[in-house]
Specification:
Elements (H helix, E strand, L loop, with lengths): L7 H4 L2 E4 L2 E4 L10 E3 L5 E3 H10 L6 E5 L12 E5 H19 L13 H16 L11
Antiparallel strand pairs: 1-2, 3-4, 5-6
Length: 141
């Protein structure tokens, strides 16, 4: 999408950074852009950009930043979704960032059993110890 879809008053407050259109005007305390709504109040800049470029936002719906940049007003980075799904997506994206930063081993180095198998092994050894039997070594593959 081209920046020209937005009015010049908005364009003058946008810095294009990669694919994101970063709002450089006023922001609220959560980091979202803020613009006047034409009726003496204000509204979120990304919601105004979406409405201008793609049409009205259905009642009760919210706008999600696909790029996860709160100050982005690029309509191609914005999608309509329910508030419940938006909240869920926050958790999903946080888990994805965590997984990317903390990769788990895969392939031959990865154990063939999970946490439940390990707990079962510990329980077995506790029972063996209580009976005076030697502990079993933990299997490595």
């Amino acid at each position: 999408m081209n920046l020209s879809v937005l009015p010049p008053t908005m364009q003058s407050k946008i810095r294009v950074t990669g694919d994101c259109w970063i709002w450089t005007g006023a922001k609220n305390n959560k980091g979202y852009g803020s613009v006047t709504n034409g009726h003496g109040g204000s509204m979120l800049a990304h919601r105004k950009a979406y409405t201008i470029a793609k049409g009205p936002i259905p009642e009760g719906m919210t706008i999600d930043h696909i790029c996860e940049v709160k100050a982005c007003v690029n309509p191609d980075h914005l999608q309509v979704m329910s508030r419940a799904l938006n909240v869920e997506m926050v958790g999903v994206r946080a888990q994805a960032r965590f997984n990317a930063a903390h990769p788990r081993p895969i392939g031959p180095a990865a154990p063939d059993f999970g946490l439940l198998a390990f707990v079962k092994h510990l329980e077995t050894n506790l029972a063996r110890g209580a009976e005076g039997l030697p502990y079993l070594p933990y299997p490595t593959k």
